[in-house]
Amino acid sequence: MELLRVVFRHYRWPFVGVMLLSLLSAALGIGVIAFINHYLIVTGAQALGASAATTLLPFIGLVVLLLAVTLGSQLALTALGHHFVYRLRGRLVKRILDTDLERLEQLGSAHLLASLSSDIRNVTIAFVRLPELVQGIVITLASIGYLFWLSPPLLLVTAVWIVVTMLVGWWLVSKVYHHIHITRTTDDRLYRDYETLINGRKELALNRDRARHLIDEVYDADARTYRDHIIRADTYHLSAGNWTNIMMLGAIGVVFFLANAVGWANTAVAATFSLTLLFLRSPLIQAVGATPTLITAQVSFDKLRELELAPYEASFDLVEHHGEWQTLELRDVAYRYPAKGAHEGFGVGPITFRLVRGEQVYLIGGNGSGKSTLAKLLTGLYRPHDGEILIDGEPVTPAEWQRYRQRFSAVHTDFHQFDRLMGPGGAEADPALLEDWLQVLDLAKKLRLEAGQVVDTDLSQGQRKRLALLMALVEERQILLLDEWAADQDPQFRRAFYRELMPRFRELGITVFAISHDDHYFAHADRLLEMRDGQLRELTGEERKLASLDAVARIDEA
Questions:
Q1: pLDDT at 198
Q2: Which of 202, 227, 337, 531 is deepest in the core (most CB within 10 A)?
Q3: CA-to-CA distance for 348 and 513, rounded, in angstroms?
Q4: Buried (b) or exposed (e) across 82-104, using 16+ Cβ within 10 A?
Q5: What is the largest CA-CA distance in the chain?
Q6: Cis ω before 152 (30° cut-off from 0)
Q7: Is the dihedral of CA 469, 472, 473, 477 positive or negative?
Q8: What is the pLDDT of residue 334?
């Protein structure tokens, strides 16, 4: 299994140590059987006689030692597995953070949540069951060696019997893999259904027809698919376990038949053979029982690999200070979304645009014109497919991409509400600056802060946007991007934003790039840009004057 190879690569010597413990456990198990064979079967009760007490004590000691070593090897392997899962989860989270937004949007939040929850959980459960598989394999090999020493002819027949048993068992297990793979794919669809149920709860409460369609025709179809295939997987799994159990009991009957009826061995050897097979039966059944769990983990591990996330890097490539700059330029930048079926993906560009430090630039455009895509290109959330981005004439290289993004603070329309205020470098926000912006944004009486953390985030949408802006401002970044920030503000605060806050940004030297359709306030912008059908142009003269009078009418002309 690829999963085991990865564990061995990252934890080679601990893994070797665990394997040695498993070998010792198997050797002690065979030692117990050999002890019983020599002192209790071959010697016989009469010969044992007065030495029974001296024989019993070493036997009890051997059994206790077997218990300790077996338990120790299983605990060691389980602990090793949990360390691996801890490392796997941490690396996965960091890789998601380092992966470009474009790839994350392609995967979707449902797929990522399924990987972070179901897939990691499946790998964790697998390592709990992994000792059973390892013990089963090791004990089986050790038992085969001991049986060969007892009687090669009996072993040959028994081995053929066990091989046939295992081949049929593995065929049944392969069916388990097929159905487990389908259930894991269905997991992604179920997570999307859960997202729809949670995020669309208000609309579903108002529209019961839509709610019925979601439950009866979407969710139920996915749930039934999951149910049907998990039942089939369990059916094959139980069949494999019962097949192995019964066939191992049958092997004991075959051994006694060959010993007594055919004369291949005496009764003592047959009894030892049977005892060994009984000893072997439990580890084999456990190994078969653990296999579906390990198969599920392998499917989950494959799913994690298929995410195609950014390579793991331990560092965050932090920037303490970017230094002075004067111009930020997009030169012939173009971007195109992936095609969907026969439909070509929407494209933006080529765009050539220069942002001068300290400017306040407004952008207008209709829905689907490419405004948000341009904002993501500007901030580095999307990487251009063509063209380049330059700072003071120097191109931003792929190695500098993470550092380039750290020039920006942003409040997007679909922003996430964090609850911790952070200043430059992740330190606490400047107290004086924080208090000043709390007053300006009219949040001083609305927020309760404890050590830089917002305790109560039960706010209106407009207040939540003010809090998001507050968090962006105390970061003290060089460029502020605002996507329809004032859309959810009341008329009074909207006016205060354009007439009081924007001039304050200018005084502080904050460069502002704002997507806005508040045409009454376009006069406050240094430049007015327009996106139309993926192309960017600057509005000047009469065009800017008309747009400032009625931006909606201009968009309708598009």
A1: 81
A2: 531
A3: 18
A4: eebbeebbebbebbbebbeeeeb
A5: 118
A6: no
A7: negative
A8: 92
Spatial separation of the C-alpha atoms in residues 488 and 104, rounded to whole Å? 27
- The pairing of beta strand 479-483 with beta strand 408-411: parallel
Name the token pair of 557.
């002309």
E strand or H helix at 329: strand 327-336
Distance CA 407, CA 512 (A): 12
Other Cβ atoms closer than 10 A to 509: 9
The secondary structure of residue 214, as a DSSP letter, is I
Residue 527 parent element (H or E): strand 527-532
Strands 347-356 and 327-336: antiparallel
CA distance 475 to 473: 5
pTM: 0.72
pLDDT value at residue 45: 47
* Cα 367 from Cα 189, distance rounded (Å): 29
Indicate the pairing of strand 360-364 with strand 511-515: parallel
Rounded to the nearest 10°, the torsion over CA 514, 519, 521, 527 is: 50
Q: Round to whole Å and give the CA distance between 72 and 68.
A: 6
Residue type, 557: E
Residue with tokens 């709390």: 438
Whether the upstream peptide bond of residue 395 has omega within 30° of 0, thus cis, is no
For the chain of 558 residues, list the mean pLDDT of each consecutive stretch of 10.
68 76 76 70 54 68 83 77 79 85 82 80 73 72 78 82 80 79 82 82 76 84 88 84 80 79 75 77 71 76 82 77 83 86 79 90 85 89 90 88 86 82 82 87 82 76 86 87 85 85 87 84 84 86 75 58
The pLDDT score that the predictor gives to residue 554 is 59
- SS3 for 425? helix
d(CA 537, CA 540): 10
CB atoms within 10 A of CB 456: 10
Residue 477's pLDDT is: 85
How far is 77 from 55, CA to CA, in rounded Å?
A: 33
**Cα separation of 293 and 133, whole Å?**
10
- Residue 542: name the closest of 555, 528, 532 by CA: 528
308 token code pair? 């195609």
Please name each of the domains of the chain with its CATH number: 2-187+219-306 (1.20.1560.10), 327-407+478-557 (3.40.50.300)
Residue 115 is predicted with a pLDDT of 81
